[in-house]
């Protein structure tokens, strides 16, 4: 069952008629809904205060802390959806992968996956492995009321990139070497990651998430032919696995202008667009039947309020003919962003698009 055809009983009743879920379903909205990737934390002083002295992965495993951090931008900015505070490597940590998130670096894997024997590290994920996620989402949905909660996971390619490289990479030489040189091992790796990712998303949906987003952050490093052949099947498997829940499925990557049509084809109901492609052009590339999400350049928020409004107006004008539009940045909130600029942006979009 697709998100567009889901009866109200398939959704948490308090959130079903929210502007965010209506936009995802390409239905008329009272205003263009707004949320921001990386809104939970990053730029907020209250986030830095509650996270002080707590490592990132540990903070993702404390339900009370997760709840507080997830709620902070909803309280401060009045966004139309909350995004669950977590990290894409949480399910990998939960199944026993020896990794850590190092400040200023990112996820670092102690034993990278380079051979078929290394696949043994990737066991199935069970709900018991991430019981803290279920607990936190239960707490959040009670607090959020009619505000939808977005669950998320990293896509198989992006997770594989970290696992094979051993950490962040600009060139992905080890991951691509496996993809080109041992396509069978690569396919088995991504298929196993698709199973883990799907299980992680199912936990979030069953706990009460109203929508999910699959982050394929590094897919922009791929040519379309390689994405279709070597990556898209695993992402499509994830989307198929959660289709029956009837919640909107969002797909996002950075630098993926050449892949937008394929990312929609993989099974998304909403395609996220970074700031490099105007939304009207993105709609042409994606084709009909999909909502779009995006796509203000995050660095615009460092300009004057007048400049922010002017660039926001460009995004809204570009989105004027879309079947459904969720306003977002073209990537995540940058840590040094002025929180007040985000609050003003939400108010501006709501005011300018009020029907």
Shape category: globular
Number of strands: 9
Largest sheet: 7 strands, parallel
Helical segment count = 15
Helix content: 40-55%
Strand order in space, largest sheet: 1-4-5-6-7-8-9
* Helix/strand order: HHHHEHEEHEHHHEHHEHEHEHEH
Q: Roughly what is the average pLDDT, rounded to an integer?
A: 95
What does this structure look like?
This protein has 355 residues and is an alpha/beta fold. It is built from 15 helices and 9 strands. The chain has helices spanning 19-24, 45-51, 56-59, 63-77, 90-94, 131-144, 156-165, 173-181, 183-207, 224-230, 232-243, 260-265, 279-286, 305-318, 339-353, and strands at residues 82-83, 99-102, 106-109, 149-154, 211-215, 249-252, 270-272, 291-293, 325-326. The strands form 2 sheets. Strands 1-4-5-6-7-8-9 form a 7-stranded parallel beta sheet. Strands 2-3 form a two-stranded antiparallel ribbon. The radius of gyration is 19 Å and the shape is globular. Mean pLDDT is 95; it is low at 1-9.
Present the secondary structure layout.
Layout: H1 19-24, H2 45-51, H3 56-59, H4 63-77, E1 82-83, H5 90-94, E2 99-102, E3 106-109, H6 131-144, E4 149-154, H7 156-165, H8 173-181, H9 183-207, E5 211-215, H10 224-230, H11 232-243, E6 249-252, H12 260-265, E7 270-272, H13 279-286, E8 291-293, H14 305-318, E9 325-326, H15 339-353
Parallel strand pairs: 1-4, 4-5, 5-6, 6-7, 7-8, 8-9
Antiparallel strand pairs: 2-3
Helix pairs in contact: 4-6, 6-9, 7-9, 8-9, 9-11, 14-15
């Amino acid at each position: 069952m697709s998100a567009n055809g889901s009866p109200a009983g398939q959704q948490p009743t308090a959130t079903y008629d929210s502007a965010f879920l209506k936009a995802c379903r390409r239905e008329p909205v009272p205003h263009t809904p707004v949320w921001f990737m990386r809104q939970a934390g990053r730029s907020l002083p209250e986030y830095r205060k509650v996270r002080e002295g707590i490592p990132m992965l540990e903070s993702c495993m404390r339900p009370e802390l997760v709840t507080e951090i997830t709620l902070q931008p909803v309280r401060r900015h009045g966004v139309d959806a909350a995004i669950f505070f977590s990290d894409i490597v949480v399910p990998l940590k939960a199944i026993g992968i020896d990794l850590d998130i190092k400040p200023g670096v990112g996820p670092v894997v102690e034993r990278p996956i380079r051979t078929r024997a290394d696949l043994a590290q990737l066991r199935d994920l069970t709900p018991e492995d991430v019981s803290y996620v279920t607990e936190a989402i239960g707490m959040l949905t009670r607090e959020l009321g009619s505000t939808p909660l977005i669950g998320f996971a990293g896509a198989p390619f992006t997770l594989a990139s970290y696992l094979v490289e051993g950490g962040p990479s600009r060139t992905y030489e080890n991951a691509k070497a496996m993809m080109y040189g041992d396509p069978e091992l690569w396919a088995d790796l991504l298929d196993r990651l698709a199973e883990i990712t799907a299980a992680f998303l199912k936990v979030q949906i069953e706990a009460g998430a109203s929508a999910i987003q699959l982050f394929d952050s590094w897919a922009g490093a791929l040519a379309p032919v390689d994405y279709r052949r070597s990556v898209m099947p695993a992402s499509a498997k994830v989307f198929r696995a959660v289709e029956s829940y009837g919640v909107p499925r969002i797909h996002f990557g950075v630098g993926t202008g050449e892949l937008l049509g394929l990312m929609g084809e993989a099974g998304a109901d909403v395609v996220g667009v970074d700031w490099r492609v105007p939304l009207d052009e993105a709609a042409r590339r994606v084709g009909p039947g999909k909502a779009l999400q995006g796509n203000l350049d995050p660095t615009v928020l460092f300009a004057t309020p007048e400049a922010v409004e002017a660039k926001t107006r460009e995004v809204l004008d570009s989105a004027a003919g879309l079947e459904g539009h969720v306003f977002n940045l073209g990537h995540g909130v940058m840590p040094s962003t002025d929180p007040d600029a985000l609050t003003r942006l939400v108010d501006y979009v709501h005011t300018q698009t009020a029907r």
